[in-house]
Amino acid sequence: MDNGAGSYRRFLAGDNKAIAEIIEEYRAGLELFLQQITGDDELAEELTQQTFVRIFTKKPHYKPTASFKTWLYTVAKNNALQYLKRQKRTVPLAFEDCLLIPDDALSVEEQYFADETAQNVHAVMGKLKPEYRQILWLTYFEGLSNKESAAVMEKSVHNIEVLVSRARQALKKQLIKEGFADEIQ
Q1: pLDDT at 102
Q2: Max CA-CA distance within the chain?
Q3: In Å, how far from its chain's centre is CA 68?
Q4: What gap in Å lies between CA 125 and CA 168, rounded to an integer?
Q5: DSSP H helical segments within the chain, as ranges?
Q6: N or C terminus of the chain with fewer C-beta within 10 Å?
Q7: Could you tell me if 79 and 54 are in contact, meaning their C-beta atoms sit under 8 angstroms apart?
Q8: Residues whose CB is less than 8 angstroms from the CB of residue 25 and which lie 6 or more positions away in sequence, other chains included
C-alpha cells in the first residue's frame, strides 16, 4: 500500500496529523513538477500550496487504481493548467533551475561532474518541446512508470511509450547539437 494513500485515508477518517505526513513526503517533488509546468518558482510554490489546500478542504475521492503520487500529481497538473488558462499564459517548461539531488556516496570530484552534467542536461531539455520535457521529467526525475505517466498526462500507455522514445531521441540529438556528446550514455 502506498504511504500517501494510507495517510490520505487516515486524514479522511479524522487524523489531522496525516496532513503533515503527506505534505512532508510530496511537497518538494510536487513543487519541482509544477515549476516545470509554469516556469516560475514562486508560482509553483503557490500552486503546490493550493493543491494541498484543495485536497484537504474539498477531499476529492482517491481511487486506488492508480498510485497516490500519480493521483496527487494529476490533481496538481489540472490545478496548474486551470490557473494558467485563467491567466491566459503560455506554459514554459524551463529546466535551468533544477538540480539533481546529490548522492552522498560520490566523491567531491565525481559530485562536481555529476552536477555539471545535470545542469547541461537540464539546460538542453529546456529547448525540447513541452510535451517531451514533461514526459522526461515524470519518467526520469519523478520515477513514475509509463502507466502512471499516462494517467498524469491523460494519454494511453502506448502513446507514453512512443513519447518517451521520441523525447529521448530528441534529447540525444539536442545534446549532440549543443556539443554535449559526452553526456550521452
Answers
A1: 45
A2: 55
A3: 14
A4: 10
A5: 3-12, 17-38, 41-57, 68-87, 108-125, 130-136, 146-153, 157-177
A6: C
A7: yes
A8: 3, 4, 7
Give 45-91 pLDDT, tens digit per residue.
999 999 988 888 888 887 777 788 888 888 898 888 888 877 764 44
Torsion of CA 39, 41, 43, 46, to 10 degrees: 140
Burial class (CB in 10 A: 0-12, 13-18, 19+), 155: middle
Query: How far apart (Å, rounded) are the C-alpha atoms in residues 72 and 76?
Result: 6
Reading the block at residue 104, the C-alpha cell is: 552522498
* Neighbour count for residue 109 (Cβ, 10 Å): 8
Q: How far apart are CA 22 and CA 95, in angstroms?
A: 25
Cell numbers at 61, concatenated: 475521492
Q: How far apart are CA 163 and CA 183, in angstroms?
A: 21
Q: Per-residue pLDDT tens for 105-114? A: 455 556 555 5
